[in-house]
Amino acid sequence: GRGVFGSGATPSATTVMDLITIATKGNATDFGDDTHARQEGYAAFSSATRGLFAGGQTPTVLTNIAYVNISSQGGVNDFGDLKTPVVRNVGASDSVRGISAGGIIAPLSSPAQVATIEFVTIPTTGDSTDFGILTQERAGSGACASPTRGLFAGGYSTAPNYNIIDIIIYWYIICIKLLR
Q1: Fewer beta carbons below 10 Å: N end or C end of the chain?
Q2: CB 66 within 8 A of CB 74
Q3: 25 Cβ contact list (under 8 Å, min separation 6)
Q4: Which residues face 48 on adjacent strands?
Q5: What does the buried/exposed string (b/e) look like for 88-102 if buried means 16 or more CB atoms within 10 Å of the residue's CB?
């Protein structure tokens, strides 16, 4: 019944993390601080007990993966690292595997979008593993998940905005380009 919001404010970085009780209409309270003052977007995914934050910018682009125990009142821990330093990536999970997809690998002044997909096993700690690639290099996608599938929709590259939806099943990838 809790939601934890990580750092990531723009235009300036912050370490602040907030907590809400989902069933109430109350205001957010302080959860604790992230170990990195993350700026810009990063992948976030979780299980019922652990929330993870992967990538971001501090102002350098990060490989860091951090986790929190959702039932605690703060205490960010080091999980491991992404293979690729990335910002504006998106995340999804089935509560066992956490996925980081797409993003930008270069400084935002000269962006280079990627199509990489990496995964971690949420109940353990450690570095990410290659999972596959998106159908198109892009950043700033939207993501949603069910217990069996992750969807990565839209996004942008140096030229167009995309109307693509990639679907993964957490144990393998099926890249399907769905266009309207």
Answers
A1: C
A2: no
A3: none
A4: none
A5: bbbbbbbbebbbbbb
**pTM score:** 0.86
Tell me the longest C-alpha to C-alpha distance in the chain.
44
Percent of the chain with pLDDT over 70: 88
In sequence order, the 6+-apart residues with CB closer than 8 A to the CB of 82 are 54, 55, 62, 63, 64, 65, 100, 118, 127, 128
3-class SS of residue 159: coil
Cβ atoms within 10 A of the Cβ of 86, count?
Answer: 29
Cα dihedral 112→113→115→117 (10° resolution): 90
Total residue length of the chain: 180
C-alpha span between 113 and 110 (Å, rounded): 10
Residue type for position 97: R
| 80 and 65 Cβ atoms separated by less than 8 Å | yes
pLDDT digits (tens, 9 = 90+) for 111-151: 789 999 999 999 999 999 999 999 999 998 999 999 889 99
